[in-house]
Specification:
Blueprint: H1 8-22, H2 27-38, H3 44-59, H4 63-79, H5 86-97, H6 100-107, E1 111-118, E2 134-141, H7 156-167, E3 176-180, H8 186-193, E4 198-203, H9 206-218, E5 221-222, E6 227-228, E7 237-243, H10 251-255, E8 261-265, H11 274-285, H12 298-306, E9 312-318, H13 322-334, E10 337-341, E11 364-371
Parallel strand pairs: 3-4, 3-8, 4-7, 8-9
Antiparallel strand pairs: 1-2, 5-6, 6-7, 9-11, 10-11
Helix pairs in contact: 1-2, 2-4, 3-4, 4-5, 7-8
Protein name: FAM86 N-terminal domain-containing protein
Pfam families: Methyltransf_16
């Protein structure tokens, strides 16, 4: 029996379609999600829904993606011997009539993806967003991550690490966090969302860093003022972007950060970078030297009296090359730090990205690293 397209269940599923479209998921996946709302066929309502989305996407500079989706939509409806809405044909004709030069210009412009973390019914509600089951993060990303723009792309481990942060807010609330290789800055936005005390985002590529700062501003994180200000909040999260090439980072510079938690997503990828990455991690994991309490500020003195917890690093990674990962483990063993696979223990409570078929959560592993 075909599903009732106007039922509450179908309406809720349309949120998945919308989220997939805004995240610019592969068009096949977006169409498949729409079929789940309608019992398998592509109805007039589904066509109208896509048409309205594509009009808005075109106005926001994402015309190339909208064109691909409408082409797929028209093909699917015609294969079913269905009737394509006039508005859909007309909108697609507008894209087809655009000049090739204009299309090439648009293809070279970075686009904005909207990543929606959807909290299921009955789940906990984040303290920073108590009345919402949805967190939408706009991110400016590269259209082609295979041509030297990898730092401006969204990677599976970054999605996993973001789900991890949102699933375990108590681990990060009021903690000082630093991320190595922050890329588009999505994990940092999630850390601020769960009210980490301080968030330091780092990257060794200046173009990536500039893009990250734009993303922070789009998410109401002003890295220049280093403060996140949300209406009604009584406290702020300090946020800072730092240029931190692993090869040249000095011990004195790294010792100044004094984080409680270190994070990294997809940073185990290049064998030549591994010694530099491990040197940075070791320095960040090292406890700061004891100081005379009388010389400390009141806040630091209270922390010193209570005893500072050991610093821990959470590294999410897809193991694409076994030799590279084994080289990483060998270096870890030599540097007097320990590593534990905590994927099973600390997997995200919920699938917060249920609409994202391109994201294979099972391919990502989460590691905890600490000093021995």
């Amino acid at each position: 029996m075909a599903a009732n397209e106007n039922s509450p269940e179908a309406e809720a599923q349309y949120l998945h379609v919308l989220s997939a479209f805004l995240a610019m998921e592969p068009v096949d996946s977006v169409i498949a999600l729409a079929r789940e709302c309608t019992g398998g066929s592509i109805t007039d309502k589904a066509q109208r829904f896509f048409w309205e989305l594509c009009v808005k996407a075109s106005a926001n500079g994402n015309a190339s993606y909208a064109k691909k989706l409408l082409k797929k939509l028209i093909n699917e409806v015609e294969l079913e011997n269905g009737q394509v809405l006039d508005q859909v044909y007309e909108e697609y004709a507008l894209y087809m009539s655009a000049s090739k030069e204009d299309a090439l210009v648009k293809e070279n412009i970075r686009i904005t993806k909207f990543i929606s973390f959807l909290f299921p019914e009955g789940s906990y509600k984040l303290p920073s967003c108590p009345n919402s089951r949805e967190l939408v993060i706009p991110l400016q990303c590269s259209l082609n991550m295979l041509e030297g723009d990898t730092g401006c792309s969204i990677w599976p481990s970054s999605l996993f690490l973001s789900e991890f942060v949102l699933s375990y807010p108590d681990l990060f609330v009021n903690k000082s966090c630093i991320e190595v290789g922050s890329g588009v800055g999505m994990v940092g936005v999630c850390l601020a969302h769960v009210k980490a005390k301080k968030v330091i985002l780092t990257d060794g590529d200046l173009l990536t860093l500039a893009n990250m700062k734009l993303n922070l501003e789009m998410n109401h994180l002003n890295s220049d003022d280093e403060l996140l200000k949300q209406p009604g909040e009584t406290q702020n999260t300090q946020v800072k972007c730092i240029h931190l090439p692993w090869e040249t980072a000095s011990e004195s510079e790294l010792s100044e950060y004094r984080p409680d938690i270190v994070l990294g997503a997809d940073v185990i990828y290049d064998p030549s970078c591994l010694p530099h990455l491990l040197r940075v991690l070791v320095a960040l994991l090292r406890k700061p030297p004891q100081r005379d309490n009388s010389a400390l500020e009141t806040e630091d003195r209270d922390t010193a009296q209570q005893g500072r917890s050991p610093v821990v690093a959470y590294i999410a990674s897809v193991i694409r090359n076994a030799d590279t990962f084994n080289a990483f483990l060998t270096l870890v063993d030599k540097m007097n730090i320990s590593i534990t696979d905590v994927t099973g223990e600390l997997s995200p409570h919920f699938e917060l990205l249920p609409y994202m078929h391109s994201y294979d959560r099972s391919s990502v592993r989460l590691f905890s690293i600490s000093s021995r």
